[in-house]
């Protein structure tokens, strides 16, 4: 990622992952702005009035899939880079991502420090 990432929104129903990601990202970049949502509807509402540099979106959530979230986000005509978050790389998900221009890749749970550094543009 070539541009600076200062604001990240996470949409994932896993609150434990939120705590781990918050701690690790703030350690790597103390001034990072992080927004975490377990409920995708709340995240969509937040995005109505706020901007972020990156959206990290869980593929599988109880309220809706990440793909359904992207469909609703598309209706709002928001432009934000999206990384899909998954526990396993399902070829069907990779195929689905080709339908969404905002999706720039996949991240595997749990996020490793090297991946977080890469997201933030921090070179070791």
TrEMBL record:
SMART domains: REC. It comes from the Bacteria. Residues 7-124 form the Response regulatory domain. Coiled coil: none annotated. Keywords: Phosphoprotein. GO terms for biological process: phosphorelay signal transduction system. The keyword Nucleotide-binding does not apply. PROSITE patterns: RESPONSE_REGULATORY (PS50110). The modification 4-aspartylphosphate is found at residue 58. InterPro entries: Bact_response_regulator (IPR050595), CheY-like_superfamily (IPR011006), Sig_transdc_resp-reg_receiver (IPR001789). The keyword Phosphoprotein applies. PANTHER family: RESPONSE REGULATORY DOMAIN-CONTAINING PROTEIN, STRESS RESPONSE REGULATOR PROTEIN 1. This is Response regulator receiver domain-containing protein. It comes from Cecembia rubra.
């Amino acid at each position: 990622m070539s541009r600076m990432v200062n604001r990240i929104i996470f949409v994932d129903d896993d609150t434990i992952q939120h705590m781990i990601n918050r701690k690790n990202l703030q350690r790597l970049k103390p001034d990072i702005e992080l927004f975490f949502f377990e409920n995708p509807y709340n995240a969509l509402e937040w995005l109505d009035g706020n901007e972020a540099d990156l959206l990290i979106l869980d593929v599988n959530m109880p309220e809706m899939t990440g793909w359904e979230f992207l469909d609703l986000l598309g209706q709002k005509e928001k432009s934000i880079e999206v990384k899909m978050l998954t526990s396993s790389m399902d070829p069907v998900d990779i195929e689905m991502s080709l339908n969404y221009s905002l999706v720039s890749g996949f991240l595997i749970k749990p996020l490793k420090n090297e991946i977080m550094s890469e997201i933030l543009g921090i070179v070791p």
